[in-house]
Amino acid sequence: MNRQSIPLLSPAIGTHREQLVSFHFGPQNSGQKIYIQASLHADETPAMLTTVLLKRRLLELEKAGALNAEIVLVPVANPVGLGQYVLGQFLGRFDLGSGKNFNRHFLQLTKLVARAKETLGADVDENRRLVRELIAAELAEQKPLTEFESLQLAMLKLSRDVDVVIDLHCSLEAAMHVYTSEAAWPEFEPLSRYLGAQASLLATNSGGEAFDETHSLLWWQLQQEMPADKPVLTGAIAVTVECRGQRDVSYEVAQQDADALVEYLVWRKAIRGDAKPLPELLTPSHAARRQRTVLRAREWHSDSSREDWRDDSRGSAALRYRRSVGRRNHDDFEQYRRRPVHAPRNPLVTSGAPLGHVTGAKAFRTGVLLGA
Ligand SMILES: [Zn+2]
What we know:
Layout: E1 2-7, E2 19-25, E3 33-38, H1 45-63, E4 70-74, H2 79-82, E5 85-86, E6 89-90, H3 113-119, H4 124-141, H5 147-159, E7 164-171, E8 173-174, E9 177-180, H6 185-195, E10 199-202, H7 211-225, E11 237-245, H8 251-267, E12 293-296, E13 310-311, E14 319-320, E15 333-338, E16 354-360
Parallel strand pairs: 3-4, 3-7, 7-11, 9-10
Antiparallel strand pairs: 1-2, 2-4, 5-6, 8-15, 9-11, 12-16, 13-14, 15-16
Helix pairs in contact: 1-8, 6-8
This protein binds zinc ion (ZN).
Zinc ion binds at residues 41, 44, 103, 169.
């Protein structure tokens, strides 16, 4: 294992504080490179603990000579956000300096498609190398002006030539769930199984310019637009894993998730060994379509005993619920995410605030699919 660090731009004289630190395991140029990062939204701590435990395991596996692939691990993907401890609260989702969501506004590598049309030839392997050269050149040209931009650029530089991106997050209160593209689903279905994901949400382009799709969209778009005599295979696939809710931080759960990631890496042959039999896919694959319905305060009322959000205060937006997270609550829908209205921490939500998200087999939502 070797440790690398990329310095970030200092926001003002005398305030330089952070670097993006990465740990590199396994042999280089093995034919497979995997990038795993945690807590790009800095206050999503379950992901960070998972990578701390994963790092221990990778050290053991490397010592035993069991690594077949290069694995880049970034346990603290957002040191800038971790420094935003304000009035006793971590504010890690948005950059306080600009108001921007740390997982939006990534440089869109799809801009390279036009250049690829001029550069690429008939050799499919050579084309992959050429596209990666274009990516590296594009990133080298970037001149970040802010700490936020330098952080995003540092992440892209670390992951510019990887085959697999695994971006670990969590939600406010949620069941384990994953986001990926339709094209990458066959490659990530085993991960969904090992993690015990209760929903797998698929979309080619969610419209948020998030880290995962910055990687996957370029290769997808190349495949759509390149002429037949300039073939391009997928160069990078990406998945975002939502490690339940923010309060789900425990060594037991984090170890379970770290073990699932190791099992997946064995399945990918990045780690030597026999892959464990694939567990059942908790959400049937036919239901694994992009679908996200947002239930908002005062919008959802139901007489059904299976759906028990209740308006407790006749017109105000105070609500509470009794169901446990992740339980199936409708024939066609699987609830996977909700806002933290769980008493006693925060039993009050404001009018119009999203209460929860459900997913199902029938996709009808279009446009930008990600929230703020
Ligand atoms: Zn997140």
